[in-house]
Amino acid sequence: MSATPLLDVWEAASANPYQPTVSKDSQFTVGFILLLIAFIFTGAFGINRSIATLPLYGIPASLAFGFGAVYMICAVGVYV
Q1: Whole-prediction pTM value?
Q2: 5-59: pLDDT as tens digits
Q3: How far is CA 65 from CA 3, 5, 24, 59, in A?
Q4: What is the spatial distance between Cα 40 and Cα 61, in angstroms, rounded to a whole number?
Q5: CB 27 within 8 A of CB 71
């Protein structure tokens, strides 16, 4: 009797465990650096507030803050 397709996938996945891009040990450092970059870009955008500086400062600042906040939350043990 053959195993179910889901069981086959489960067995295949057990041979290759998941390896995250950023390890648990370095999540705090990555999160801190991203939040620092977000703080700097937010300050630069606040000084030069215009539609021209939005793609240069505003969008990278919001992305760095979003990812940095998630990494910091995960680094201190609060899982999202």
Answers
A1: 0.74
A2: 888 888 888 888 888 888 889 999 999 999 999 999 999 998 988 888 888 899 9
A3: 46, 41, 19, 10
A4: 8
A5: yes
